[in-house]
Design goal:
Layout (H helix, E strand, L loop, with lengths): L14 E9 L6 E8 L4 E5 L7 H4 L2 H4 L7 H8 L10 H18 L3 H4 L8 E5 L9 H13 L5 E4 L12 E2 L4 H6 L3 H6 L7 H4 L9 E2 L1 H18 L5 E4 L6 H11 L4 E5 L7 H10 L4 E3 L10 H6 L4 E2 L3 H4 L2 H14 L2 E4 L5 H13 L4 E6 L23 E2 L14 H6 L27
Parallel strand pairs: 4-13, 5-8, 8-9, 9-10, 10-11, 11-12, 12-13
Antiparallel strand pairs: 1-2, 2-3, 4-14, 6-7
Helix pairs in contact: 3-4, 6-10, 10-11, 15-16
The chain binds magnesium ion.
Length: about 450
């Protein structure tokens, strides 16, 4: 793996195996896939945070024996087995590994196969969870530290999670707030949990019966003011994870915070409720952003046509991979919509997003980085000498494929997911599964 074969014969390359490792706290739970070949070259992909390897394993039968350099052909075979959110992770993770393999086989970086560099450096926006930041001053200080590290664009969470202990701030069916308090901040923000009450957490925002009281709006506005008092008004600041509350609360919150010049409000409504996005766009003066859970570029079109969003937020690991990200930006360009690339994964997902961002058209605004507070994040790459994100940017080199020769198994082992132990284990039981895949008769 580490010595990719520069003398390989790309036309004779064949996929022979698919292996996985599951890690935790990167800061998300992440699944890395490795696709092996008959020439000793392996390609890496990733299955979106909080997803599952079975989305990729079900596709093993379709890619064994294929030449990984035939990315379009293989994508055509597997595309029908993806869906929105984490269900797009299998198709997307494989697509990325194919680009990595093709690049390694031909000895060129992925961005070059995509048409070359549209920009020398990829601007990173640094995300910041609420975790442990109990006041706007705490959040402001954390964001200021990021600015001091060179980040030129920021995002933070600002939502009802912050209000659970604030008196008279949330109006909800009695008992709901107490139940929400039993969840971790990550469970609340992402709705990811196996706990009882998950049904409620996974209801669309507008169906929860939760609204924010004036007290809550005062609190959130002041929290943001405290942040701006520390970071100033000259750096773009997006907000995410507003949380489970009704449409009217979103409008009221937007009215309160527009004076703090917000770069975008993200996923304040589930992406598929186009009618609500359209109504929201008519009522608020803050750019609106969604898309990290949309599978395939074509599924963004309804939002584009509705005229309700200003920034798309595709995740390479949900949309279907690198090609689909570039495809959606062609349409975004036509509608004058900017692209912020969502990325909350390991160095594999990060490099896939960085190659797409490097080759992307002028819709590119910034790419996310969610692991600023994970000290071991870069060490997942074997023999990594430099951090991938430096001074708020990623600059890609001429290294073939995604630019990662190999991962450091010792580091991965320290962060293995205890619920999914094992590293690069045999998956041959999936080799000979068979289904009549045709979706018409
Ligand atoms: Mg988000």
């Amino acid at each position: 793996m580490s010595d990719y074969n520069r003398c390989s014969s790309p036309s004779e390359l064949k996929i022979t195996d698919m292996r996985f490792v599951d890690i935790v706290d990167a800061p998300m739970n992440c699944t890395i896939v490795r696709i092996d070949t008959n020439q000793g070259i392996s390609g890496y992909g990733e299955i979106r945070d909080f997803s599952n390897k079975f989305y990729a394993l079900q596709l093993k039968r379709l890619i064994l024996g294929e030449n990984p350099c035939n990315i379009n052909k293989i994508f055509g075979k597997i595309k029908q087995f993806g869906y929105h959110g984490r269900q797009g992770g299998g198709v997307s993770g494989i697509e990325i590994a194919l680009w990595d393999l093709a690049g390694k086989a031909y000895g060129v970086p992925v961005y070059q196969m995509l048409g070359g560099k549209s920009r020398e450096n990829v601007r990173i926006y640094c995300d910041t969870d609420v975790d442990g930041k109990h006041s706007g001053k705490d959040m402001g200080r954390a964001l200021k530290e990021r600015m001091d590290k060179g980040f030129t664009f920021l995002k933070m969470d600002l939502g009802i999670d912050l209000l659970l202990d604030v008196e008279n701030s949330i109006n909800a069916p009695l008992g709901i707030v107490d139940k929400m308090k039993s969840f971790s901040q990550q469970e609340l923000s992402f709705g990811i949990t196996n706990k009882q009450f998950a049904d409620f957490m996974n209801k669309p925002h507008s169906l929860t019966g939760i609204s924010i009281n004036e007290n809550g709006l005062d609190y959130l506005e002041n929290y943001l003011k405290e942040v701006r008092d520390i970071i100033g008004y000259e750096i773009p600041l997006a907000i995410d994870h507003i949380g489970h509350c009704n449409f009217q609360s979103i409008v009221k919150l937007a009215e309160r915070i527009e004076k703090y010049n917000i770069a975008w409000m993200e996923d304040c409504i589930p992406w598929m409720h186009t009618n609500l996005w359209r109504e929201l766009a008519n009522k608020v003066n803050i750019p609106l952003c969604t898309g990290e859970d949309i599978y395939l570029a074509d599924n963004f079109v309804e939002l584009f046509e509705s005229g309700s969003i200003h920034i798309i937020h595709p995740d390479v690991l949900t949309i279907g991979g690198i090609s689909e990200v570039l495809k959606v930006t062609h349409t975004a360009d036509k509608y004058g919509i900017a692209t912020a690339v969502h990325m909350a994964e390991t160095p594999i997902g990060c490099m896939a997003a960085a190659h797409a961002s490097t080759a992307m058209n002028d819709t590119f605004l910034a790419m996310e980085f969610h692991s600023n507070d994970v000290p071991w994040w870069d060490s997942m790459v074997k023999d990594s000498k430099e951090n991938i994100v430096q001074n708020g940017y990623i600059t890609l080199t001429d290294k073939p494929g995604l630019g990662i020769d190999d991962l450091d198994d010792e580091v991965l082992k320290e962060h293995i997911n205890p619920d999914r132990p094992g590293m690069w284990e045999d998956t041959s039981q999936w080799d000979n599964e068979w289904v009549h895949d045709r979706i018409w008769s």
